[in-house]
Amino acid sequence: YFMFIGLLMAGVGTLIAAPAVALMYGASYEQVVTPLRVMILVGGLTMTTAAFNALLSTTDNQHLRVVFAVLSIGVTFAFAIFLVPRYGLVGAVASHAASTTIIFVLMAMGITRVMRLRLPWRELLLQIGCALFAAVVALVPVLLAPGNVSLIAGSLIFALVFVASTAVFKAWRASDIGHVVSFLERYPRVHD
Questions:
Q1: Which element (helix H / strand E) includes 50?
Q2: Which helix (H) or strand (E) holds 188?
Q3: What angle do the packed helices 2-25 and 121-144 form, to 10 degrees?
Q4: How far apart, in whole angstroms, are the C-alpha atoms of residue 168 and residue 98?
Q5: Cα separation, 93 vs 44, whole angstroms
Q6: Which residues have C-beta within 8 Å of that of residue 78, sequence separation ≥ 6?
Q7: Distance between CA atoms of 61 and 47, rounded to whole angstroms?
Q8: DSSP run (H or E) holding 46
Q9: What pLDDT score was predicted for residue 189?
């Protein structure tokens, strides 16, 4: 679920960043669009980190969680010291993106190794493929008619194509669908 929501957020957020900044702050803040896009993209692609942290907490592996937290502080500090003074805002965004990505990869490798977990690679790769497919489809109106309206349309297209393609290409396990159905039955107002 975290990968799906993260990919959805990354795609929609990256496309809608410029219109959202223009609407909320005006054209004078256009220079923050690229850093915002990078942060949304990295945040979405690494959202599964939240599931890793929840797993460590619920399995009483707090010591491992502390190791990753300290490692995160160290990696972030190192990148920030090197990049921010030299490159300013671009360095800060690059530092955030690099440290977040490195910690995500280390957590994925560490947790799967230490806890002997097998990630659902087939489904994860299918979801990534569906997101890439949706991005290509969503970029068509953006490239044909650049502007905020086409970015908004592209974000809606991305969301629809991504969600639909995960169903068509069976990027979900039957147990995943069962959990969603069970949730909807317990909270009927969600789907009414």
A1: helix 48-58
A2: none
A3: 30
A4: 33
A5: 15
A6: 99
A7: 20
A8: none
A9: 65
Question: Can you tell me the distance from the alpha carbon of 93 to that of 161, in angstroms, rounded to the nearest whole number?
Answer: 29
Report the chain's C-alpha Rg in angstroms. Answer: 19
For 49-104, write each residue's pLDDT tens digit: 888 888 888 888 888 889 989 999 999 999 999 999 999 999 999 999 999 999 99
How far is Cα of residue 86 from the mean position of the Cα atoms in its chain? 28
12-18 own/partner pairs: CB under 8 Å, 24+ apart: 12/155, 12/158, 12/159, 13/37, 13/40, 13/41, 13/43, 13/44, 14/40, 14/41, 15/138, 15/142, 15/151, 15/152, 15/154, 15/155, 15/158, 16/151, 16/152, 16/155, 18/148, 18/151
Tally Cβ neighbours within 10 Å of residue 73.
12
What is the distance between the alpha carbons of residues 92 and 109, in angstroms, rounded to a whole number?
Answer: 26
What residue has token string 């942290």? 53
Q: Is the pLDDT of residue 40 over 90?
A: yes
- E-assigned strand segments in 17-96: none
pLDDT level of residue 37 (50, 70, 90 thresholds) = very high
Give φ, ψ of 110 to 5 degrees: -65, -45
Rounded to 10 degrees, the C-alpha dihedral 127/129/132/133 comes to -100
Per the CB < 8 A criterion, the answer to whether 102 and 45 are in contact is no
Distance between CA atoms of residues 61 and 69, nearest Å: 13
| C-alpha neighbours within 13 Å on the C-beta side of residue 80 | 8
